Amino acid sequence: MATESDESVLGGSTSAERRRAVLEKLNPLEMPIRFQLGLLGIVGFVLLPTQLYPDQMGRPTNLLFLMMFAMSWDVVSGYTGQLSFGHAFFFAVGGYTSAILDLQHGITPVIGIPVGMLLAGVGGLLIGIPALRLRGPYLSLVTLIIPIILAKLFTLFNNSLPVLAPEGLGGRNGPGLPTQLFGIDGSGAVLELAEGYSGIQQTALANYYLALGLMLLILVVLLAVTRSSAGDVFTAIREDEDAVAAAGLDASRFKLFAFVLSAVVGGLAGAVWVHTVQTPSPLGILGQDDIQTSIDVIIMSILGGTGTIVGPIIGAVVFALSAVVVGGLSDVIIPVADVAVADLRPLPLLAAAMATLVFAPGGVLRANIRLGRRILASARGDEYEGEPIGGGDSALGQIIEKYRAELREIIDERR
Amino acid sequence: MTSAANVIVTAISISSLYAIIAIGFTLIFGVGGVLNFSHGALITIGAEASYLLSNPTNLGLHPALGLVGGMVTAAVVGAILYLGVVQFVEDEPVTLLILTFIIGFFIQHACRVFITGTSDFSVDQVTPGETTIAGVTLFDIDIFIFVLAAVLIAATGVFVSRTKTGKAILAVSMSEKGAAVVGIDARKINLITWLLASAFAGIAGVLLTMKQTGAWSMGTQPLILAFSIVILGGLGSIKGSVVGAYIIGFTETITTSYISSSLQGFTALVLLIVLLLVKPEGLFGREAA
């Protein structure tokens, strides 16, 4: 690959050389095209609010949170291959903790959010430890039902949960609207902004840029972790756990680390979510049937490409754009069924996810990088040989391999 | 006030429904190694088809025809799923897992968009009315469900252990290569299994609607319970599924009737997690199907 050779420049001999190499690497003009496009995307997100009215800001802000959730899924499921079907559990733990602390204990979100994040991390430990013992389908089941159990707990402790939540968890409606981080003057928010319309404007902007900042922070942290040697171990676990053990590394410790990291990230995003643009309730956080959000996160990651961290961001954009595009077609009626295209949601998106799974298991990101390389190569007049196409080499392909081996073990055991 | 006898009858009829759902799920897993997460959607399909056929506001046919129609529709959709999608990605379990999940959502949302919307719907019972046996009043529909499920379970047992096709199903689930060596067409066996499992899911969907009400997302809860039951009983074991179904069905009914109705769908899942941590291979994990 052409990009690979650029990266070895980092190891200069003197510190001056090294610094120059780093600076060169950070120079946008010298970057590979895919990084330039990424930077352009970030610039686009920074400039986006200039094109929208305050009341249109909700969706893009929500989108940023979806990105964080999808990234947090990717770091554990995309990298280590431990498929989680109930990641919204962590978002809910973060969100509910912070909301309840605020509403029923009078603790400001500024403290509540870090506490929610920590508690989600504890949740990650609690699920991560048994996850080390459970294989493929069993882990999927456990992660699938944990958010459902959580939602039942919300209903069970509807009116009161001694000490922790004296006024209860609020059942299906949620515990109520917690203090917002930003609001107009006199709204009681943590940070009160201007009055009237300009206050509404500022609130929308503040929420958006906070989410954007948080998303970029999470992106940088997760990229740093997954591109470090720990990330290599994650990938190695996905590829061949025995090999990791044979190299003298404790695979379970890394898996646990991935789980907790993912949970902390998800908890943080979930906690900030309920203090900005989302109401804490089972439907709001966990989604339809208490599993929709978890599945949406998986769909986004698959659309963009699992095991990349950047892929889920792109997947989330595709996810949100498709909702906007399809939702905009309210005047287009499908002839025979007499249903407006807009009412079809989420069918087109689900169909797109199915098609991605079958035809481009590496995700949209990888497919486009490959396409881009081919175009560049043909522009140079070379023939692009490319990487082998097909499941085997992509992250999803490796997760599949791992899963298959575990299924085989389970089936063999029965005989 | 619910008497103990009534609780037991409800538990039996619900468990019987769970059992036929779980048998289908476990058969598909045993034969093709596929965890079919669209199984819940097939329950919805059965229910929606019977609604279209036998609800008075639609065709208004006899409920029995709705039952048959629900079964056939679900079986056809199941066969389409296998022939159109599953057989092409059969050896990629994760793709398949997520794919069947998404297909399940797709089908359920399609039912919502095109057929019933978000409101609940009902279907007339095949056997309306009540019967009093030894001083206990029972709904006829509960008796019907129990008898039908028992017949179906027994028939499945006989089919799998006595008939040639059934034995072939067992053979494929034990070793696909071995089955191929003796000339069994695994693809055909897979198709038969999908037909059978989907038909069962369809029947369960219709009966669930008759007993309670139907809704576009009605398949999700039974799907999760079926998955739990199958894991509880040991993946791929028919006997395990039946036993697991009764354990889960009874736990659920007894806790919801005697402790609190808000416990619905809770105790069974907690029980399952505990069991998974203690005995991950399931109750009948080491047995052949």
UniProtKB/TrEMBL annotation, chain A:
<feature type="transmembrane region" description="Helical">
    <location>
        <begin position="256"/>
        <end position="276"/>
    </location>
</feature>
<keyword id="KW-0472">Membrane</keyword>
<dbReference type="InterPro" id="IPR001851">
    <property type="entry name" value="ABC_transp_permease"/>
</dbReference>
<dbReference type="Pfam" id="PF02653">
    <property type="entry name" value="BPD_transp_2"/>
</dbReference>
<dbReference type="InterPro" id="IPR043428">
    <property type="entry name" value="LivM-like"/>
</dbReference>
<dbReference type="GO" id="GO:0015658">
    <property type="term" value="F:branched-chain amino acid transmembrane transporter activity"/>
</dbReference>
<feature type="transmembrane region" description="Helical">
    <location>
        <begin position="206"/>
        <end position="225"/>
    </location>
</feature>
<keyword id="KW-0812">Transmembrane</keyword>
<feature type="transmembrane region" description="Helical">
    <location>
        <begin position="346"/>
        <end position="365"/>
    </location>
</feature>
<feature type="transmembrane region" description="Helical">
    <location>
        <begin position="138"/>
        <end position="157"/>
    </location>
</feature>
<protein>
    <submittedName>
        <fullName>Branched-chain amino acid ABC transporter permease</fullName>
    </submittedName>
</protein>
<feature type="transmembrane region" description="Helical">
    <location>
        <begin position="85"/>
        <end position="103"/>
    </location>
</feature>
<keyword id="KW-1133">Transmembrane helix</keyword>
<dbReference type="GO" id="GO:0005886">
    <property type="term" value="C:plasma membrane"/>
</dbReference>
<feature type="transmembrane region" description="Helical">
    <location>
        <begin position="110"/>
        <end position="132"/>
    </location>
</feature>
<feature type="transmembrane region" description="Helical">
    <location>
        <begin position="297"/>
        <end position="326"/>
    </location>
</feature>
<keyword id="KW-1003">Cell membrane</keyword>
<feature type="transmembrane region" description="Helical">
    <location>
        <begin position="33"/>
        <end position="50"/>
    </location>
</feature>
TrEMBL record, chain B:
<keyword id="KW-0813">Transport</keyword>
<feature type="transmembrane region" description="Helical">
    <location>
        <begin position="7"/>
        <end position="28"/>
    </location>
</feature>
<feature type="transmembrane region" description="Helical">
    <location>
        <begin position="94"/>
        <end position="115"/>
    </location>
</feature>
<keyword id="KW-0472">Membrane</keyword>
<keyword id="KW-1133">Transmembrane helix</keyword>
<keyword id="KW-0812">Transmembrane</keyword>
<feature type="transmembrane region" description="Helical">
    <location>
        <begin position="136"/>
        <end position="160"/>
    </location>
</feature>
<keyword id="KW-0029">Amino-acid transport</keyword>
<keyword id="KW-1003">Cell membrane</keyword>
<dbReference type="GO" id="GO:0022857">
    <property type="term" value="F:transmembrane transporter activity"/>
</dbReference>
<feature type="transmembrane region" description="Helical">
    <location>
        <begin position="65"/>
        <end position="88"/>
    </location>
</feature>
<dbReference type="InterPro" id="IPR001851">
    <property type="entry name" value="ABC_transp_permease"/>
</dbReference>
<feature type="transmembrane region" description="Helical">
    <location>
        <begin position="222"/>
        <end position="247"/>
    </location>
</feature>
<protein>
    <submittedName>
        <fullName>Branched-chain amino acid ABC transporter permease</fullName>
    </submittedName>
</protein>
<dbReference type="InterPro" id="IPR052157">
    <property type="entry name" value="BCAA_transport_permease"/>
</dbReference>
<feature type="transmembrane region" description="Helical">
    <location>
        <begin position="191"/>
        <end position="210"/>
    </location>
</feature>
<comment type="similarity">
    <text>Belongs to the binding-protein-dependent transport system permease family. LivHM subfamily.</text>
</comment>
<dbReference type="GO" id="GO:0006865">
    <property type="term" value="P:amino acid transport"/>
</dbReference>
<dbReference type="GO" id="GO:0005886">
    <property type="term" value="C:plasma membrane"/>
</dbReference>
<feature type="transmembrane region" description="Helical">
    <location>
        <begin position="259"/>
        <end position="278"/>
    </location>
</feature>
<dbReference type="Pfam" id="PF02653">
    <property type="entry name" value="BPD_transp_2"/>
</dbReference>
